[in-house]
Amino acid sequence: TKIAIFASGSGSNYQAIMDAIKSGSLEASVELLVCDREDAFVLERAKREHTPIFQFDPKRYDSKFDYEKEITNVLYKHQVEFIVLAGYMRLIGDTLLQKFTNRIINIHPSLLPSFPGKHAVRQALQAGVKVTGVTVHFVDEGMDTGPIIAQEALKIDILDTEQTLAEKVHKIEHRLYPETIQLLLQKNEGVTP
Ligand code: GRF
After folding, report:
1. Is CATH 3.40.50.170 correct for 2-187?
2. Which of the listed residues 6, 13, 132, 137 should we mutate to test ligand 1's pocket, taking the one with most ligand atoms within 8 A of CB?
3. How sure is the predictor about 193, in pLDDT bands with cuts at 50, 70 and 90?
4. What is the tens place of the pLDDT at every residue in 90-121?
5. Whole-angstrom Cα distance, residue 62 to residue 96?
6. Which residues does the annotation say bind (6R)-10-formyltetrahydrofolate (predicted)?
């Protein structure tokens, strides 16, 4: 299955997916990296892995509709069937949602529906919950809403800081995301855009 990864940051989940493909545990090919920032480290990773990149600056477009139309064209050009958000810090709009219905997933560093948004790890610590985790879910028009596909819990230690907890969360993400994508793609086999 031809997939595209959307990312805005460091791209450790992009890397985990690439590594899973190389090791043979994930049967997919990453045809495109879509990135909305010019300074994101994921761009370096993608160059190293020879993944084609579509990098854009949302500020240069009049609206979300305009840039998503362009993204859609690039996705079609690369025959992308499935979109994986991996630290993409932007809401997906109607254009992409309509063209890729049930074909966009996201990973989030909490047990949704607790702690949606950009600061999930910090908020879990501040709330004093003793268990948090990772969620993989289908993307809809909301922020970190949409049907849940997979979750994994982890215990918060009294000594955890935002940094140590983020590291534990990432470790789970890097295993859970490739595994979940593989399961989903197996189920969806034969479906074309
Ligand atoms: C991950 O924690 C993911 O759950 C969240 O953004 C972070 C991306 O990290 N949506 P990275 O760029 O893959 O390292």
Report:
1. yes
2. 13
3. very low
4. 999 999 999 999 999 999 999 999 999 999 99
5. 17
6. 64, 89-92, 106
Return the structure tokens found at 165: 């907890």
Beta carbon of 52 within 6 Å of any ligand 1 atom: no
Domain residue ranges in the chain:
2-187
Set 108, 119, 170, 174: catalytic member: 108
Length of the chain: 193
Q: What is the DSSP letter of 156?
A: P
Concerning whether 108 is annotated as a catalytic residue, the answer is yes
Task: Name the strands in the sheet holding 82-85, side by side, starting at the edge strand that comes first in the sequence.
Answer: 53-55, 29-35, 2-7, 82-85, 104-108, 131-138, 148-155
Q: Which residue has the tokens 């607790």?
A: 114
Contact criterion met (CB below 8 Å) for 155 and 134? no
Residue closest via CA to ligand 1's atom 9 equals 87
* C-alpha–C-alpha distance, residues 180 and 192, integer Å: 19
Tokens 């994986």 -> residue: 84
Give the residue among 39, 74, 34 at the shortest CA–CA distance from 51: 34
